[in-house]
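Notebook entry, structure prediction.
Reason for the run: the old model in the group folder had no record of what sequence produced it. Starting over properly, with the input documented here first.
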Amino acid sequence: MSSATPSWYSKIGAQRDWAWRGWQVRYTYIRSTAAATNPPLLFLHGFGSALGQWRYNLHPLSESHTVYAMDLLGFGASEKAPAEYGVTLWMEQVYDFWRTWIRTPVILVGHSLGALVAIATAAAYPEMVGGLILLTIPASRQEVLPAKLQPLVGSLESFFASPLLLRPLFQLITRKPGIIRSVLKKIYVNPEVVNEELVALFTTPPLDRGAAGVFCRLSKARTRRDFAPNVKDLLPQITSPTLVLWGQQDKVIPIAWGRQLTEHSPHLKLVEIEDAGHCPYDEHPERVNQEIAHWLKKYGSGECSYA
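New structure, fully documented this time:
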């Protein structure tokens, strides 16, 4: 692990390390004393990010619910393990964390990759999940590409996932934070949100031992057909109330995909966040927190039915 502690870690509760399958996993929690009967919230970050992405959300939402957040294996301050990465691995990590520390139905809150892990977890372990709050949902390659193009795209992705290409790229990115800054400014609608704290959130974990190897493993894993399940196959299996928040200006996963998904689940409610891109929790945290808090009140009263 890198020796420096990021400044945003002080904003997200009591951080702890947990040994999972012999690997170190970082998590945090804030216990709420306001309403002990309310279900806990478990936050799952997006691809390339970490639990620090929730720095504007955890404390406000902990006023009514105990909150947990974790770094998925390979990301953030969790170990950069030589594992076979994929949604199934992270889903098992989430389930084992819940079984170890919580053991009561939770509401999973996930962004992008974290949203996909949350959906897969809810489908596989319905006894664990009482509801879902998802901020953008990625599609698998099979869902966005015509069948005849999938072998070609898979071959190209496998070629570009070669460590001979990826390791020099990784070194270039980690040595030049300006590259990350430029990418983030394309993802965020408001470039002023891209400050030193946000850049550090993405540039600190790659300094950890084993990070280059994880970068190569993840890049290779994303070319596999079994890296992620099809969202449209999973959604009909989920009967839990589901809130989806989506930035209207999302360039990474356009909101048109989110609108399609509403046709696959009567339990899903889509709320569009104006003037927001791929990370609405960061660009408009007050609006996102308000929407979540309002939904949680309806959830607690049994009014979360969208059929």
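Summary: Residues 7-146+227-301 form a domain with the Rossmann fold fold (CATH 3.40.50.1820).
The old model has been moved to the deprecated folder.
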